[in-house]
Design goal:
Structural class: alpha/beta
Radius of gyration: 24 Å
Low-confidence stretches: none
Largest sheet: 8 strands, mixed
Strand content: 25-35%
Order of helices and strands: EEEEHHEEEEHEEEHHH
Mean pLDDT: 86
Number of strands: 11
Shape: elongated
Number of helices: 6
């Protein structure tokens, strides 16, 4: 079904629900509008509700049309969906089969790009730290504090005290490159330089490091 809102034709679907207590609106990915109707409501109620919320609908449909970038997670391109719901107060998310889906509250100002970045940072704080500990234990490195940051010029760093720091954007790359950067910084715990001895140590734990290093150099942070 379609309805004219501010000189544009908007498609919508009706979903009847026995559990719903109030009329609800959701904007699905690609600008698909869904109206949830509780018991006792009909098509005319849905149409009136859509017209009443026309300003909100047009505002968020416009957002979906503007943003369409490429998103990556562990080397795979993923799809980002942002839907809107009038009756929630916090963002909800799910990640399934390379689709990262956000359902946002009506008054949300964050774009799906911003939500993706925040999700990447939060995911990195857990998965990257766990991966560092796993590799350190496997190759018998003693590490200090591990932090995840938004460095402008580095993928990772190691302090003289063995504290490690990694850029959350590493999660855009494949697992092999992530592991190479981790191994690179772990080796700095023993060799705080880029000497021949250091690279021999890196090669011991990551024989294909030259390939990963070259691939990483082809990308800016």
């Amino acid at each position: 079904m379609t309805i004219d809102l501010s000189n544009r034709s908007v498609s919508y679907t009706l979903k009847y629900s026995l559990k719903a207590k109030y009329l609800r609106l959701q904007i699905k990915n690609k600008g698909e509008l869904e109206v949830v109707l509780p018991r006792g409501y009909n098509l005319s109620d849905a149409v009136n509700f859509i017209k009443k919320k026309s300003e909100w609908i047009n505002k968020h449909l416009k957002k979906n049309e503007i943003y369409d970038n490429r998103y990556l997670f562990l080397g795979d391109e993923i799809k980002i969906e942002q839907n809107y719901d009038l009756f929630i107060k916090r963002h909800k998310l799910s990640f399934l089969k390379n689709v990262l889906s956000f359902t946002s509250p009506a008054g949300a100002t964050e774009t799906k790009e911003e939500l993706y970045e925040n999700w990447l940072k939060k995911t990195a704080k857990k998965s990257l730290v766990e991966r560092v500990h796993n590799i350190a234990e496997k190759y018998h490195f003693q590490v200090g504090r591990i932090s995840i940051r938004s460095q402008k010029t580095r993928w990772g760093s190691c302090s003289s005290k063995g504290n490690l720091s990694f850029n959350y954007n590493l999660l855009r790359f494949g697992k092999e490159i992530v592991d190479y950067v981790i191994i690179h910084e772990l080796c700095h715990i023993k060799e705080m330089n880029h000497s021949e001895k250091f690279w021999k140590l890196v090669e011991k734990f990551c024989p294909d490091y030259r390939r990963y290093r070259k691939e990483l150099k082809g990308h800016s942070i």
